[in-house]
């Protein structure tokens, strides 16, 4: 890669185009256009990671990791204009698209206060769409595209129904801040604490020469002005402090949730099986509940954190969708409503399958009962009542195993766990992991979001937030109301429902499923991996650990938890078993 600013493909670039907001702030956009004058459909993203910071410069370890699994990321492009989690303009402009990447308020070269996923931010996004629609280089057909942050914000802006918002691709995107990111099953996650410090403050507007300088163009990524540290601190809302002030589902979260009834534009929701704990549930829930009559779901195997969006296969899927909704052509109308990568026990794709619904209509919901005395998962509940205990902060917890599978068995979809349990204190946190073991008892691990070694899938529950929203709950997807705290009476037995996030795996004959129930994050016991800028040690729980001692005090959560099975307390896993077609 040479160090000059020239792209590989011919295109015109407009840097720092001003976009006026209704309060006088001007956001800044980079616009990438075909060399020929004319009007083009627009692929647009609003980023919180700075439009002028190249992916390869800001996240070199992730860039190199992505190139290893998707070398085409670096082909037919200079790679100099890909900002983190946004599309590569050089892969789109030659196909007759304009690409617009905008710095969100307070980020990069856009002034203002950073308030992630706030109503102010989604209002800005709405106005950016309408600005792009009336530019002389635009046909007025605006499609939004991006991954993670750049996808989550799409769920929010889609509910505002901007007149020129013609379609959206939510690639890896949660849409319920409380349930999918900040509090898993009511248990507070510390993800926001490391994310804000390492990824947002580092590109805040006003850093000037103290921030990044684009090594290809020489532009100061965070603007030409230099603010004092006091001014910088005043211009960002700390998201971790913010969500910790809101442990229950209240108006704060209502203003930051997708409004399903108002999302009517065509949408493509793309997730990956490894995004348990952040995006995957949002991708499936978005597909299930958005009001759009033209919507598609695709779930891919995890190929590293970012590679999937930039593979030739991923770009082809994106382009066919936008050719259809922005240009009115192509063959995307024949795309099946649901397309799934089916994973093997070794995390390979054994099949890319077309389906008509999610979850699959032919799913055989199968109860596997906990046998506490024998630490087994069985087809029938134990005849008499059983009980077994573990210590809250003991990593091992209790693990229950099936007999070796008599034949290959496909698990595909959401799962749920029903527990009867008691605590020696007034609360208990339940970390539930679905696992796979080979005939020699060795655990088979999978590539997760950022973490290369995770179990099949996970679920979580804080017992004091066990209350269900009966109107929204499904047998395979219990839905917690999170509107009240109900402390436990020590020693009393409670019925608890734990949502287990969706997954796909074909369990080979001779292998065993395992279900671990513990009071701490899953830990595979192997050598940890360090995650990028944050310095987090990844041990199988990916990048959203639940380790804040102020919100998980040992006096309450390092307790004695007792699980019950058999009789009237038939604790069980509800597994999504899919028979062959």
TrEMBL record:
Region forming the signal peptide: none
Pfam families tied to this protein: Peptidase_S15 (PF02129), PepX_C (PF08530)
Cited SUPFAM superfamilies: alpha/beta-Hydrolases (SSF53474), Galactose-binding domain-like (SSF49785)
Domain Xaa-Pro dipeptidyl-peptidase C-terminal residues, every copy: 319-574
Name of the protein: CocE/NonD family hydrolase
Keywords associated with the record: Hydrolase
Domain of life of the source: Bacteria
Gene3D superfamilies assigned: 1.10.3020.20, alpha/beta hydrolase, Galactose-binding domain-like
InterPro entries on file: AB_hydrolase_fold (IPR029058), CocE/Ser_esterase (IPR005674), Galactose-bd-like_sf (IPR008979), Xaa-Pro-like_dom (IPR000383), Xaa-Pro_dipept_C (IPR013736), Xaa-Pro_dipeptidyl-ppase/CocE (IPR050585)
GO terms assigned for molecular function: hydrolase activity
Species: Pseudonocardia lutea
NCBIfam families hit by this protein: CocE_NonD
């Amino acid at each position: 890669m040479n160090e000059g600013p020239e792209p590989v493909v011919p295109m015109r670039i407009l840097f720092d185009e001003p976009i006026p907001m209704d309060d006088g702030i001007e956001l800044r956009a980079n616009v990438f256009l075909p060399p020929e004058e004319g009007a083009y459909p627009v692929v647009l993203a609003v980023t919180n990671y700075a439009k002028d910071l190249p992916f390869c410069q800001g996240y070199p370890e992730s860039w190199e990791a992505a190139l290893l699994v998707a070398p085409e990321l670096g082909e037919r492009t200079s790679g100099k204009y890909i900002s983190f989690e946004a599309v590569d303009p050089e892969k789109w402009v030659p196909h007759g698209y304009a690409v617009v990447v905008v710095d969100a308020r307070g980020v990069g070269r856009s002034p203002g206060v950073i308030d992630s996923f706030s109503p102010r931010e989604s209002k800005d996004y709405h106005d950016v769409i309408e600005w792009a629609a009336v530019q002389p280089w635009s046909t007025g057909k605006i499609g939004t595209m991006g991954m993670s942050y750049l996808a989550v914000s799409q769920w929010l802006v889609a509910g505002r129904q901007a007149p020129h918002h013609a379609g959206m691709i939510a690639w890896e995107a949660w849409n319920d801040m409380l349930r999918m990111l900040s509090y898993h099953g009511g248990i507070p996650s510390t993800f926001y604490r490391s994310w804000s410090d390492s990824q947002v403050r580092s590109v805040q507007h006003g850093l000037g020469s103290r921030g990044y300088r684009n090594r290809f163009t020489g532009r100061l990524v965070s603007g030409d002005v230099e603010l004092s540290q006091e001014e910088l601190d005043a211009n960002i809302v700390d998201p971790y402090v913010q969500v910790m002030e809101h442990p229950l589902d209240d108006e704060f979260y209502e203003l930051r949730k997708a409004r399903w009834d108002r999302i009517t534009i065509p949408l493509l929701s793309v997730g990956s099986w490894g995004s348990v704990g952040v995006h995957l549930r949002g991708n499936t829930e978005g597909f299930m509940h958005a009001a759009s009559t033209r919507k598609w779901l695709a779930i891919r195997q995890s190929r590293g954190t970012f590679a999937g969006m930039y593979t030739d296969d991923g770009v082809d899927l994106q382009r066919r969708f936008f050719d259809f909704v922005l240009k009115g052509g192509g063959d995307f109308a024949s795309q099946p409503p649901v397309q799934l990568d089916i994973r093997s026990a070794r995390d390979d794709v054994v099949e890319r399958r077309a389906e008509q619904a999610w979850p699959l209509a032919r799913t055989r919901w199968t109860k596997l009962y906990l046998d506490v005395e024998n630490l087994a998962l069985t087809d029938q509940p134990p005849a008499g009542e059983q009980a077994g205990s573990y210590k809250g902060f003991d990593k091992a917890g209790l693990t229950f195993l099936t007999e070796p599978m008599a034949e290959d068995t496909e698990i595909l979809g959401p799962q749920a766990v029903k527990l009867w349990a008691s605590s020696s204190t007034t609360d208990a946190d339940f970390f539930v992991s679905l696992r796979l073991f080979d005939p020699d008892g060795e655990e088979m691990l999978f590539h997760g979001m950022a973490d290369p070694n995770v179990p099949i899938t996970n679920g979580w529950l804080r017992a004091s937030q066990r209350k269900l929203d009966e109107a929204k709950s499904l047998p395979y997807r219990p839905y917690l109301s999170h509107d009240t705290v109900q402390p436990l009476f020590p020693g009393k037995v409670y019925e608890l429902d734990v949502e287990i996030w969706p997954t796909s795996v074909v369990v080979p004959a001779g292998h065993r499923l395992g279900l671990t129930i513990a009071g701490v994050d899953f830990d595979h016991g192997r050598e940890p991996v360090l995650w990028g800028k944050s310095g987090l040690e990844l041990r199988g729980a990916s990048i959203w650990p639940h380790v804040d001692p102020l919100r998980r005090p040992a006096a309450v959560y390092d307790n004695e938890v007792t699980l019950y099975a058999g009789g009237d307390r038939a604790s069980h896993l509800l597994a999504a078993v899919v028979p062959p077609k």
